Amino acid sequence: MLKKISGLKKGLIGEIIIPADKSISHRAIMFSSLAKGSCIINNFSGGADCRSTLEIFKELGTDISYTDSKTVKINSDGKLHKPSASLYAGNSGTTTRLISGILAGQNFDSVITGDESLSKRPMKRIITPLSFMGADIESNDGYLPLVIHGKELTGINYESKLASAQVKSCVLLAGLKASGKTTYTEPYRSRNHTELLLDYLGADIKVDGTSVTVCPSELSSKDITVVGDISSAAFFIVAGLITPKSDILMKNVGLNPTRAGIIDIVNRMGGDIEIVDKNIISGEEAGNIRVRYTENLKPCVIEGNDIPRLIDELPVIAVLASQAEGQTVIKNAEDLRNKESDRITSLVSELVKIGIDIEERTDGFVIHGKSKIKGDAILDSKNDHRLAMSFYVAGLVSEQEIGIEGFEWTKISFPEFEELMLNLMTN
Length: 427
Ligand code: S3P
Known about the structure:
Bound molecules: shikimate-3-phosphate
Strand content: 25-35%
Number of domains: 2
C-alpha cells in the first residue's frame, strides 16, 4: 500500500495514550503459559507480532482468549503440549528466538517457520548456546525453519559477544527447565524485560552487572499490566521535536532504563523533553513524556552501550539528526543489518532520495544536518514497520509529498500509528 504524506502547515498538538509494549506483551503470553493457573494480561499489544506469539501458545495447548481487544485471559496447566502443526512466527524475531529456548527443553519435537523477512534472519546466535546446553536443533544453515527435538538440558555459563535481549532471553528461558544453574553474560546490558517479568512471577533469577543467573524454577500466575511502548512513542517524540509549533503529551510510556536511550539522546541534542508522573506497573517503570518543537537541535555521537538501549529507535533518530545542526555519528550498530530489513542500507538508500545527507558505514551511519527534506520521491519501506513509520515522520516536515511503499507493515508493531498522528494534526 502506498501512503502519501506531505509537510504539515501546523504543529502536532495534544495528548495521546501510547499502546502496549511489544517486548513485554510477547513475554507476558509466554511466561503466563509456563505458569500453572489463571491470569489476565491487561493492555496487550494489538500488533501482528504479539498475535503470532499468542497463536503459537494456543497451538502449544494453553487456553488463551481475548475478553476485549486489549485484554487476554490465560489459563494454563503449567505445561506445554506437542503441537499438531508447525509453529508460524510470522515476521517476529522475538517470538522465534524466545520460544526456541522454551521448546528446546520440552519432551516433544516442534518446527518453527516464518515469513520471507524472518526466514532471512540469523538463528545461529541462539542455536550455538542452546547446543551447549544439550539442545538438538536442525536449521536451514542457520536460518528458518528450525526443527527442535526436545531434550533434557544442562545449565551453562555463557559469555555472549552480542548485546541481544533476544539471545539472552532464549538462554535464560532454556535455563528455567535445565538442570543446574545458567549464567548469561553480555558485553552491554540489553533490555531486561525477561529478568523483571521472571522475577515478578517468582523465578529464581539474579542479576549482577551484565550477568544474569537463573536456576530451574516454577512460575506463579499473576495478572500483568503492560506499559506503553517507548519504541512506538519514539516516532511521536521525534515528530514533536522537528515539526514547528508542536506540543505533545504521551501518556503511559514504559521508561525502563534499558530501553529509554532515546530520552538521553534527545537531552544530549538539547531537545525540549520532560518526563512526568513516574510510577511502576507490573515491575516496569512508566510515566508521561511531553515534547515540544525545538528549533536548534545539536548533533551527537551514539555508540557503545547507547546502542542496545535504543536499537529499534535508530531509524527515526536518523530523521531527528537530519534536523540538527552538524554531524551526528552512529556507530557499533552493525546488528541493525539483521533486523526486519538491513536497516543501515535501506535507511540510507531511501533517506537520500528525499534530500537527507546521510552516509552508510559498516556499523552505522553519519548524518550531516541540517538537511532540507525536499520530498517528491517514493520511499520503499522494504516491508519493515519501523522504516515505514520513520519515513512518515520525515514526511511531516517535507517540502513536497513523500510516498511510502509498504506502509501497511506498520501493523506489525503499531497498527494505531497513523490514527494517533491524525488526531494530533486536527487539534
Ligand atoms: C527485542 C530485542 C531487540 C529488539 C527487538 C525486540 C526483545 O532485539 O531489536 O525489536 O523483545 O527482546 P535484539 O535483542 O536481537 O537486539
